[in-house]
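Submission checklist for the structure archive. All mandatory fields must be present; incomplete records are returned to the submitter.

[x] Identifier: protein-tyrosine-phosphatase
[x] Organism: Ascaris suum
[x] Residue count: 401
[x] Sequence attached
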Amino acid sequence: MAREFLISKFEENEKNKQWNAIFQSIENLSDKQERALKLSTRIAHSWQNAEKNRYRNVSAYDCSRVVLKKTSDDQSDYINASPLSIPLAKRNYILTQGPLPSTCADFWQMVWEQECTLVVMLNKVVEKNCVKCHEYFASTQRPVRVFGTFEVHLRSEEQCEHYVMRTLELVTTDGSLVSDSSQSASRSVLHFQFVSWPDFGVPHCSRVFLDFLDRVRATGRLQQLAPVVVHCSAGIGRSGTFVVVDSVLSMIDEKVESIDMEELVVKMRRHRMGLIQTPQQLQFCWKTIAEALKMQRDSERSSKANEPSKAIDPRPTCIIANTGRGDGPPHLERSAANQMTSGQHAKSLTDISGTIRKRSSGEQCESEEDAKYARRDSGESASKKCARDCVKVNVPVTKAA
């Protein structure tokens, strides 16, 4: 079973300290793959597009890039963004760099044309006195932003300990982007910003990241056909980590029987170069997945152990009907999960997060963050925890100046 294999393989790699060797193997296989498939970046490095790349060594492959549809004669269709589809996980992503001042309009054009309703941002605007991303979104400080023919309005903002969730309204003033008269010129976009992830590093605690992923999944928008935009500064390190963790846990939910982590990362790199930048990020991916799967396994065992025993009627004439439910805990199929309300989505991960917080206070935590999470109320759900930790701000409707 994939779950047990991933857990045991993580423990083996951890015991033997294999992370540098595994990461180097991924690098070598990726280089061979790039040469074999002749993955080029000619368009990205043309004189017209070179300045659209935040980093010279991170760009979109010619064969795997998002192409902007509505462009003028003197406007390039290039944006440093790569589509990534993972059918086994039922996931569609767009991995992209943090927008530059000159590419914010392109970013929102991509969001509009690809019909994206969820953006996951994994960095701060400024980190260690360096600008990692232009502030392309609306916030309480600047509730209305204008980028080219797009207006971005802030409708609400929740500030939590480790992330911020914003509800944005994206408005286009370009009539050519509205295909017919029945289509609205505005759309709602959820914007999640994780603020506890250092550049080139990993979060202090996998529990913090699992809580964040739980909240993102609870929106139900990761399961939609429209792609989810995921970005950090370069769009490969933190973004790759998020995508690997989410997609692997989704594949487990989909009962995929075999998952090879190294092979998965190499295949993902066909579409977005350099995905997962360091051995530490690879280790964090696997650690977070293994911890989530252990909690899932423990939760299932606990549910079985706590099931009430079936009453047996001693009378021979009594026939007990088979309810068809079986002896195990109820299982939620993906098709049913997609029909649930947003608060019910990703219940398995919510259970995992809840189980994580139920660990005894005597267990050694890996950091001060872990210690703080272990002390929290064991019966607290993710939504209640967020309600306590988050401050919500509703913003009145405002017109652009």
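[x] Structure attached
Curator remark: The chain has one domain: 2-295. The radius of gyration is 23 Å.
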